[in-house]
Amino acid sequence: MEIFNPDTGLPVLLRGLHILAGVAWIGLLYYFNLVQVPSFAAYGEEGKARNISIDKLARRALWWFRWAAVVTLVLGLLLVGATKDYMKDFMSGSSVHLGANATIFVGMILGITMAANVWMVIWKNQKVVLANAANVLAGGEADAGAPAAGRRALLASRQNFIFSFSMLWFMVGTAHLYEVGGLYDINKAGKAWLFVIICAAIAAILELLCLGKLGGTAATNKLLWPYESHKNSLITGGVLFVVLYVLSEILLKV
Predict the structure, then answer these.
(1) Is pLDDT of 147 > 80?
(2) Does the pTM exceed 0.85?
(3) Whether residue 65 has pLDDT greater than 80
(4) What's the confidence (pLDDT) of residue 53?
(5) Torsion-angle region of residue 103: left (phi > 0), alpha (psi -120 to 50) or beta?
(6) Which whole-number Å values give the CA distances from 235 to 71, 107, 116, in the listed order?
(7) Rounded Cα gap, residues 210 and 240, in angstroms
(8) Burial 181-200 (b: 16+ CB within 10 A, else e)
(9) Which residue, 94, 117, 103, is CA-closest to 200?
(10) How far, in Å, CA of 45 to CA of 57, rounded?
(11) pLDDT at 131
(12) C-alpha angle 32/196/244, rounded to 5°?
């Protein structure tokens, strides 16, 4: 069967599975940011109802969310390994598609950062929130640290939401824009690396911000405006996408 041909069909199969897992992961990310968080906030003083929703609904959604992130990441790495000559001359002046190398590299950086956020920040803190909800429903005392944990998870989730627009653009756009027509086939590795470094630096600043390394995680930190509502995150994600896209036009276009 051609689908198992290691030179042709297997990479296509892995790409399809990678996309399928990614749809589940990013779809749940959008659900959390656009639906669940605003809805839970609307519960107001209905603490019991909110805790039931956290225990029964959020718990299940978070299971699919975190494992979809792992599967997406693993399949992406397998795709790179299974695709013939994928890394040949990657990001070097000898590369035929140097512009495309740079854009997929940025997509990878954003995607890997997002996966790390899921497991190292979001899930780590959501475990505290879930345990607190279950404990309170069972008649126990509320965990005083749960609100702070929920806040940290929220900031990281909103950061992933912001990153996702640019990540998806460069992941998809590499094959459908930056690799076709020769418009981005620059022959200067320095420009490609400059694009990657600038994008990575911007992403790093935003990541440090959401982790509270630039002024803390309290709502009083005015620098956290991008994360204080899903509307702010939509605006920030859109601005980030425009900035990175314009950079690709300036540095990667022939």
Answers:
(1) yes
(2) yes
(3) yes
(4) 95
(5) alpha
(6) 29, 20, 23
(7) 15
(8) eeebbbeebebbbbbbeebe
(9) 103
(10) 19
(11) 97
(12) 55
